[in-house]
Design brief:
globular
Length: 480
Amino acid sequence: MTDAAAPQPAAVTLTPAQRARAILGGSAGNLVEWYDWFAYAAFTLYFAPHFFPKGDQTVQLLQAAAVFFLGFVARPVGAWLMGHYADRSGRRAALSVSVSLMCAGALIIAVTPDYKTIGLFAPAVLLIARVLQGLSVGGEYGASATYMSEMAGRSRRGFWSSFHYVTLIAGQLIALAVLIILQRLLHKDDLAAWGWRIPFVIGALLAVVVFWIRRGLDESASFKAADKPAEGIGKSQRNLASLFFVLTLAAGGWVLARPGLVPQVLAGAFLVAFFATLIAPLLARHPRETLMIMGLTAGGSLTFYVYTTYMQKFLVNTAGFDKAAASEISAISMIVFMLMQPIAGWLSDKVGRKPLLIAAYAGGALTIWPIMSGIAATDSIGVALALIIVGMTFQSGYTSISAVVKAELFPAHVRALGVALPYAVANVLFGGTAEMVGLAFKHGGIESGFYLYVAAIMTVGLVVSVLLRDTARHSLIAED
């Protein structure tokens, strides 16, 4: 276990200019990674009929959300592979590989013909693209969160590492901005017919630029000073993980082609076996840290996706706003949310990480019902926006310090893997299913049940926050 007394600060010191350059350089790729990832969610309303033409709008969204979820399934693979790679070969090398995969995924989506042209190959190719992007994002999170936390100074680590979520949110904002601009410039028929491909072309081009930027980054001192070799991947674990991953994707494709109880049960069973195979060695060596990261991520990721990607659909399908109004509400709320991150990160440097986490989960659990019910009942843009911002204010207590809390729990030789893998697994189970669960509750006529589900998962995060030692005072990142 690694929950020991914090190591003494090492003599490595960066100037403010060096630190800022490292943080900005590392976060640039994070922005593009998340732009590409969220472009899929932002444009789902437009491209879903091209890949899933049968059924009403809610059914089409459910099918597109299922592909979104299968992209999430690939994220633990990316976290597992890139986590080991970043701990063995360096954070910079892993960051370059992750952005290359994202470029490939975005380009495939941009050029794939629709269902009318190539039939079932259309959703199949879309799935492949999302798997590539899932691998990329899974690897990106651990490498970038670790790199930015290691490059931040001890006294302002919360502030500097908060830019991990600033760029994550900025990526989503840019995706929304592209959506709003295209809605203004293109006729709605053109946007629905071919305009939705534009954001994926933009994402692929930006990824090429970031790849070049990341080639020039300095490696972190923590990686260079690691006193133990990285933990390797055993042959049996690699073979079992590969087998269960292929079986999970095959069962998932069966669910998409012919929905039914049998393929759903098989997909779920293979998925559980796959995750267990991936995380078992890390859980055996670092049980407390692994479980705590999973508990924090469950509630934090679920609520994040409720207020961001799912909210746009909720505003249209439930509250009755048109698509343009929903996009604008989402964009404004995300700008406010982004600006909250450095403030909350700075606050964690003053009062500690633990108080912010407790406030985030307690406030989130208590307010989710009135916020979602209020949005569903209003036709006022101002009221809907205000309610979303209230929820995001509580959420900032988690998002602003998500990267640094996880990085501070693990020693350098296993930090990238320890940050990435438990997060990715919990994110699949709760963040990746947020849209599907929410839309399924709506499809069943009991949408308010979704609010209770979110509150229950947030309560789990609250319990973990109470039990967690304050990582600001017990950090395992020694370098300053």
